[in-house]
Amino acid sequence: MLRTRFTEEFGIEHPIVQGGMMWVGRAELVAAVANAGALGFITALTQPTPADLVEEIKKTRDLTDKPFGVNLTILPSITPPPYEEYRQAIIDSGVKIVEIAGGNPATHLNHFKEAGVKVLHKCTSVKHALKAQAVGVDGVSIDGFECAGHPGENDIPGLILIPAAARHMKIPMIASGGIADAKGLVAALALGADGVNMGTRFLCTQESSIDQKVKEQIVANSELDTKLIFRTLGNTARVAKNTISEQVVEIERGGGGFDAIRDLVSGARGRKVFENGDLEAGIWSVGQCQGLIDDIPTVAELVDRMVAEAEDLITNRLGEIVVERVGSRA
């Protein structure tokens, strides 16, 4: 058993989180994560309306009696969704854990706190982690440059970002980005985190709703097969390397603005990738840790394997390292 202040604060068995993923964080995956003793998040904006989110929460409760949460991601959008309505749907459904990503958590924090909801805020810098702690969130997820989706604009990898943030955190902190196995879990704990968040690794499990061809491509890909887009727009995103993402990079490099890439990067096209398995239909998020993924297990197999291997690493591999103290010589 790997008990940390994160597992204690959020009432879960293992210090492993499946964070919000657009088009992916659905009931079947989230319930499987919860049943495995980890913490899964339904992605609120995957659901077309707040009423649909309420139904997805009910569906998840039919599949598990263990804790799970809802992710509410606040990012620049062509057509901003009704965030307040999604927030109220979460509260009215009795969900007790929320992951906020993107925007300032203070906008929604008081509403969630009044309803007894614990808030985990995902951020990409020490500055934002400190601000989240100051406004009163219950935990922070610190997202390194290796991650899928939006790694921020500072380009700081987890090996630096995790301990830099841990020095200042008085609340539980989990590490995101570049983590796909037990080695990543143990390393994150050693760096000062209280658990880990994984997106790409859970994307590539049997309960994940994405098309099998996408999962097989993740297994086939290496850590080199991602591209950074939206760099010129100050909204960097890490996505899979394909003809569409390469085209977007070239347009940006040539000075093209958002209007020049709007159609290429539409969410509707990205959704077709996940649902139809057309790997060239649009951009799709995946992290550099895909280079560490070589199978498509069930969620239970993945979590059990990670915990068992982490315990073995801590008690045996690290326990075998001899620390020799050499005194001064005459």
UniProtKB/TrEMBL annotation:
<dbReference type="GO" id="GO:0018580">
    <property type="term" value="F:nitronate monooxygenase activity"/>
</dbReference>
<keyword id="KW-0560">Oxidoreductase</keyword>
<protein>
    <submittedName>
        <fullName>Nitronate monooxygenase</fullName>
    </submittedName>
</protein>
<keyword id="KW-0288">FMN</keyword>
<keyword id="KW-0285">Flavoprotein</keyword>
<dbReference type="InterPro" id="IPR013785">
    <property type="entry name" value="Aldolase_TIM"/>
</dbReference>
<dbReference type="InterPro" id="IPR004136">
    <property type="entry name" value="NMO"/>
</dbReference>
<keyword id="KW-0503">Monooxygenase</keyword>
<dbReference type="Pfam" id="PF03060">
    <property type="entry name" value="NMO"/>
</dbReference>
